Amino acid sequence: MRRSRRLDEIQTRQVEWLWPNYIPLGELTIIDGEPGVGKSTACVAIASLVTQRHPMPGERKAHTKRTAVLYMGFEDDEQKTIAPRFHAAQAAMDRVFFLNSVPVLDENGDQLLDKAGEPVDASFRIPRDIDHLEHELDMIRTETGTEAAIIVIDGLFDVLDGKKDSHKQQDMRDSLRPLARLAQRRGTAILLIRHFSKSPGNKATSAGGGSIAFTAIARSVLTLGRDENGNAHLAVAKANLASLPPNQIPSFGYQILPTEGIEAGHLEWTGDSGITADEIVGGRDKEKALTAKERIAATLKEMFWDRDEIPGTEINAALAHLDGAVATKNAGKRLAGLDIVRQAGPVTMWGWVDRATDDVF
Fold this sequence. Notes:
This protein is α/β, with parallel strands linked by helices. It folds into two domains: 14-287, Rossmann fold (3-Layer(aba) Sandwich), CATH 3.40.50; 292-352. It is built from nine helices and 16 strands. The chain has a nine-stranded mixed beta sheet, sandwiched between helices. Strands 14-16-15 form a three-stranded antiparallel beta sheet. Strands 1-2 form a two-stranded antiparallel ribbon. It is globular.
């Protein structure tokens, strides 16, 4: 019996959107940007619109009837930072749920307690805790009567299994696929917040930290950053399911303003800003001139876009046109987290080996 299917046997279905051309429902979307540019505040603003059934920027109506939001924060305190941000964004607070840990169970499947009788929790990790996340979504559906419209994971590297190498494409694909399948099963948009690498080059699709597998498995990538004048923008770097190519999808300016009576800022959209994601990333390099070894590291990142290993001869040929002595080029390789991984006869193969450079690539 054949496993392949003729295309006339496959029922097509339309893409459902939380924010048309920007955030699809049932898929992974990455939110890229430098620290301090407002990635978390932007996600709070988007999630808050969902809880109120208000339209997204540039839209005339909300595109989903769902109003529940699950926010998974690992860097900011939920009492001092996360809840005040949602208050400042005028979210319907009874529609926002917070999660950053999972229960530790004993051999019988019961909650493990410490000596004081308190529940023992563990930090949330993927793919280990996908079943716990699914259970939490079931509880939210029971309480609210609707599936969660959006899950925000702030930030991406905080939930990865420490035993996995964030620079190995296969490791990261294996980690993210269960999360992508959960998004598809539930029809929920999952936003993954990620920092830029230290040497992002000039392409927005390769500017984020870690393996390029992150960008490959996400159906949408949104880039946040500032232009040379300090103005903040959100632009589309990747849009596999959109009706337009990324550079034709409008970008939006935004500003973060103080909120009266609340110790948290709120985000206001300022309209179509006419900047592309690549221009945001390129402008970052204008603000901070790259050193020779950083330029070398950026070039290597472009080379490793969809490859885990590259022959040393090919690397040396690609770096020949760049300034820098042999020692500088070797320093660039180290900055990129690269080293010799194996010898294939007379050919030396280079690949990712340094797990301590998540903030570089």
